[in-house]
């Protein structure tokens, strides 16, 4: 006799609790959206979505990487004001002329805005941005004051 392990869901078979099970699944999907790269809002017309970001800090610079595949770099706007980096853009939905019945649509479209408070002061005149393979990379050199000074400990 073979045994099979399954997840125990005590309320699945109970008719009065079917609504509870649906709500639990909805909440699980909601919380899972945070671990899948951030909360996303999307309407049927396109709406707003939030691209995923990475922010790294080295001794001399901050590096921000933003996943925005399928966009033209001229549709991306980057600004820096009072230590707040803002990335804006709009990803247009591709529409084919021939009629198609979609079974699944997971790609995000519409306008987005991401604003990040930078953890260090940067040299705004030396910021560099590049876009390759759907990833926007912004390199922000730190100001001299923001660079961490290393202090050697003398052993006696």
Which characteristics define this entry?
mainly beta; 156 residues; 1 helix; Immunoglobulin-like; 29% strand
Structure description:
The structure is a single chain. With 156 residues, the chain is mostly beta strands. The chain has one helix and seven strands; from the N terminus they run αβββββββ. A four-stranded antiparallel sheet has the order 1-2-7-6, with no helix packed on it. Strands 3-4-5 form a three-stranded antiparallel sheet, with no helix packed on it. A hairpin with a 2-residue loop joins strand 3 and strand 4. The longest helix is centred in the N-terminal third of the chain and has 18 residues, at 18-35.
Summary, kept brief:
The protein has 156 residues and is mostly beta strands.
What order do the helices and strands come in, and which of them pair?
Elements: H1 18-35, E1 53-57, E2 61-67, E3 76-81, E4 84-91, E5 110-117, E6 128-132, E7 135-141
What structural class results from the helix and strand content? mainly beta
Approximate helicity band: 10-25%
Largest sheet data: 4 strands, antiparallel
* Shape label: flat
Q: Helix tally?
A: 1
Any idea of the CATH topology of the largest domain? Immunoglobulin-like
The gyration radius over C-alpha positions equals 23 Å
How many domains, as an integer?
2
Just name the CATH architecture of the largest domain: Sandwich
Task: Give the low-pLDDT segments.
Answer: 36-46
């Amino acid at each position: 006799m073979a045994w099979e392990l399954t997840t125990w869901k005590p309320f699945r078979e109970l008719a009065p609790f079917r609504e509870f099970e649906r709500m639990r699944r909805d909440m699980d999907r909601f919380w899972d959206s945070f671990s899948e790269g951030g909360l996303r809002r999307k309407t049927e017309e396109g709406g707003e979505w939030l691209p995923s970001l990475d922010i790294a800090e080295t001794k001399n610079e901050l590096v921000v990487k933003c996943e925005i595949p399928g966009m033209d770099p001229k549709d991306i706007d980057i600004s820096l004001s009072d230590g707040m980096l803002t990335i804006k853009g709009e990803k247009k939905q591709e529409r084919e002329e021939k009629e198609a019945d979609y079974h699944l649509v997971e790609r995000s479209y519409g306008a987005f805005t991401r604003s990040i408070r930078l953890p260090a002061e940067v040299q705004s005149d030396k910021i560099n941005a590049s876009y390759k393979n759907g990833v926007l990379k912004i390199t922000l050199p730190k100001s001299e004051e923001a660079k961490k000074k290393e202090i050697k400990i003398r052993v006696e």
